[in-house]
Amino acid sequence: MFSDIFKQLIQNKGVTVYQISKDTGISESLMSHWKSGRQLPKYDSLNILADYFNVSGDFLLGRTDEMPKEVEKQESQVVKEPTKSRIIPLYMTGASAGTGNWLSDDIPVEWMTIPKTSLTEQADFMLKVKGDSMQPKFFDNDVLLIKKSPSILEGEIGIFILNGDSYVKQMGKGELISLNPVYEPIKLAGYDDIRCAGKVIGTVDFE
Fold first, then answer.
1. N or C: which end of the chain has fewer CB within 10 A?
2. Over its length of 207 residues, how does the chain's per-residue pLDDT go in tens digits?
């Protein structure tokens, strides 16, 4: 479990909770809860810890027992930097690229470890595409990187909650647009309950 992994990492690094708090900005009281198993860290704290202890998100989550090496020397004596990663939530109910799919803050999430890049660092969560209305840019089951935003510009692609259903669409003038010409734009009326959940900034491949 996380508390055991956390305590082992502290011991291996030879630091105190006070020192970790100074280095990371995480409060000592919060880390005390983690060590006792009374509380689990949120994903932003998990990412900070992964960087601090130079381990993968999978190791912190107990998905692998292999402790990564801090550096690996090749035959050429070139030092290889460890691959950086971050942990980000993947909502299990995807956004529809078609007729709509329910999405709310209460749906379950799965914490996923993905490579840390300039693009993935901007993402707040991930969603799977359901349907083919955003082809050829996005395909069914593509995993989208989403940056939270209450609004996006015309022509940008976002996640929209329209009358309780979620869509991945391009923002148009008073309509939500599909990139696949087979699908008609969704016209927006004054009585519609619509909000923007975020901007699509890219995709991530887990294979």
1. C
2. 778 888 888 888 888 888 888 888 888 888 888 888 888 787 778 888 888 888 877 787 777 665 554 433 333 344 444 457 888 888 866 665 554 444 545 556 788 888 888 888 899 989 888 888 999 999 888 899 999 999 999 999 999 988 888 889 999 999 999 999 999 999 999 898 898 989 999 998 765
Rounded to 10°, the helix 17-24/28-36 angle is 130
Q: CA–CA separation, 168 vs 158, rounded Å?
A: 6
How far is CA 89 from its chain centroid?
A: 4
Q: Which residues pair with 115 in a beta bridge?
A: 85
Please, which residues have CB within 8 angstroms of residue 104's CB and are 6 or more apart in sequence? none
Contacts of 185 (CB under 8 A, 6+ apart): 172, 175, 176, 177, 178
DSSP state of 122: G
Report H helices in 40-147: 43-53, 57-60
DSSP assignments along 184-197, one per residue: PPEE--TT--EEEE
